[in-house]
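Module 6 notes. Inverse folding takes a fixed backbone as the condition and produces residue identities as the prediction. Think of it as a translation problem where the source language is geometry and the target language is the twenty amino acids. Below is one complete input and output pair. Work through it position by position during the lab.
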């Protein structure tokens, strides 16, 4: 459904050599670029802290799929099988999150529950319950043991808050959430000066993160405001956009590096909770409203999907702009080389965006132009991104890149930028494939182990620091140069190579009429 790709000449060390043939290239319409938005309603900060070591946090033993081979054990409202937590009541799971004198929750559990709990309640409601349980523990402590209790439990509560604020900082953009945090922090600081400094550092780090993401969102808004239709700019200021991408950057590898800069920066701002919040629906045990309703926040995820669409349209615009056939062919070959470099870097998202742009109908219909293009390298790349067998070739390449990243000695080798729309699709179908609650009303925690496992892998990839130097000129061009709309692309395409049938001729007449109004 998404794409049948085709691209040439790859020297990717981590790919198997088994996949090298492709016989067809299907044209893509621009509508396919936003299909993920339609299906799923789906956008340099300080690096997200690595409180959990995400790469090592989940493994195949996180839960056991063979649920019914032995009797389940019931432990305080939590159901286990082979020592793996499978389900439990929401209240029991909340209790399991809160540390006590003799217990601190496993980091995998903290991440999984904080990620999935928002399907059942607001984060500020969860924080309020955590505060209440901590207060109750202190209240029930024998008076003579109060000081000793504080010394044992306070560091654990502080650690839980640290993991929460570092891994899910966007939860604290809610004033109610921040208020609950400060109330609990105040109780912690009453335990002595040693805790006061730690709490102060925690709050300062959180506030700095939230300020940074606000600045990032302001930059995105400014970029969006400058992204006008290129055809309009051409008509009003014809000399203002005589530049093209090759004039700005004639080295495909350099452009691939700057594309990777943008990808990693935007990935870095996506919170793990956005994958869950994109699919929030009404909780069957909540009679009044959905657990997030209009408060869902997926702005950074959406901005990243919009970047993919922009890059695809930019590629199509650059190809359709030149008047001469040989210049259009040169641009196509340039982008083929850029795509190959993205592939070698491990930047699969930019790779697929470039392929998508070249497969848009206004581009794919330029038969005379394509006749002048050497497509060997393009065929190989498209074969690697072929959607058949559920993107088998791509998934094999992704596993290779992920393995290379785990054993890498440099940030350059650590880069793994997945084809993001497919990642969202995988998470969507995982979410849709089983219920959030079991028939007895318990939370289906087995499902959320798997969800957290997928998201944690993404968290590892997005924390890689880009090893390439920023080129402001290239970045500004990629992010702000006006691009063609669908109609403008077709008009430019028809002007370059005349319509071939009545449908194209009628559309060309209509577009020319509209453009002259």
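Target side of the pair, the amino acids:
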């Amino acid at each position: 459904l998404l794409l049948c790709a085709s691209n040439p000449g790859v020297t990717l060390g981590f790919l198997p050599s088994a996949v090298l043939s492709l016989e067809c290239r299907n044209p893509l319409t621009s509508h396919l670029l936003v299909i993920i938005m339609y299906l799923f309603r789906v956008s340099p900060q300080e690096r997200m802290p690595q409180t959990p070591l995400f790469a090592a946090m989940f493994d195949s033993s996180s839960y056991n799929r063979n649920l019914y081979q032995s009797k389940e054990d019931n432990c305080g409202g939590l159901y286990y099988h082979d020592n793996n937590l499978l389900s439990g009541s929401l209240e029991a799971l909340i209790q399991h999150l809160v540390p006590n004198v003799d217990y601190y929750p496993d980091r995998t559990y903290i991440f999984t529950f904080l990620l999935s709990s928002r399907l059942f309640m607001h984060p500020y409601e969860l924080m309020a319950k955590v505060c209440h349980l901590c207060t109750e523990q202190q209240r029930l402590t024998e008076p003579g043991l109060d000081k000793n209790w504080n010394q044992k439990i306070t560091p654990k509560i502080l650690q839980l808050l640290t993991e929460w604020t570092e891994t899910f900082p966007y939860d604290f953009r809610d004033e109610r959430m921040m208020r609950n945090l400060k109330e609990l922090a105040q109780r912690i600081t009453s335990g002595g000066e040693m805790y006061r400094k730690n709490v102060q550092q925690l709050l300062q780090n959180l506030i700095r993160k939230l300020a940074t993401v606000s600045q990032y969102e302001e930059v995105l808004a400014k970029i969006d405001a400058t992204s006008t239709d290129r055809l309009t700019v051409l008509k009003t200021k014809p000399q203002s956009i005589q530049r093209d991408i090759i004039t700005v950057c004639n080295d495909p590898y350099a452009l691939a590096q700057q594309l990777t800069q943008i990808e990693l920066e935007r990935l870095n701002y996506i919170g793990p909770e956005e994958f869950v919040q994109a699919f929030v629906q009404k909780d069957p045990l909540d009679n009044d409203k959905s657990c997030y309703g209009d408060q869902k926040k997926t702005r950074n995820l959406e901005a990243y999907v919009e970047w993919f669409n922009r890059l695809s349209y930019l590629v199509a615009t650059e190809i359709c702009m030149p008047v001469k056939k040989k210049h259009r062919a040169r641009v196509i070959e340039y982008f083929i080389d850029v795509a190959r470099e993205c592939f070698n870097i491990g930047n699969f998202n930019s790779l697929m965006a470039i392929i998508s742009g070249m497969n848009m109908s206004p581009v794919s219909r330029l038969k005379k132009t394509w006749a002048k293009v050497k497509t060997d390298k393009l065929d190989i790349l498209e074969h690697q991104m072929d959607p058949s067998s559920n993107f088998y070739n791509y998934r094999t390449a992704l596993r290779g890149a992920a393995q290379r990243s785990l054993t890498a000695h440099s940030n350059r080798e650590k880069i793994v930028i997945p084809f993001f729309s497919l990642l969202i699709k995988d998470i969507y179908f995982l979410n849709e494939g089983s219920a959030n609650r079991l028939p007895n009303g318990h939370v289906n925690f087995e499902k959320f182990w798997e969800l957290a496992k997928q998201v944690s892998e993404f968290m590892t990839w997005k924390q890689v620091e880009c090893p390439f130097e920023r080129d402001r000129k290239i970045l500004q061009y990629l992010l702000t140069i006006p691009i063609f709309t669908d109609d403008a692309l077709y008009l430019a395409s028809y002007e370059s190579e005349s319509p071939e049938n009545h449908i194209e001729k009628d559309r060309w007449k209509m577009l020319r009429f509209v453009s002259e109004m």
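Reference fact for the lab report: The chain has 25 helices and four strands.
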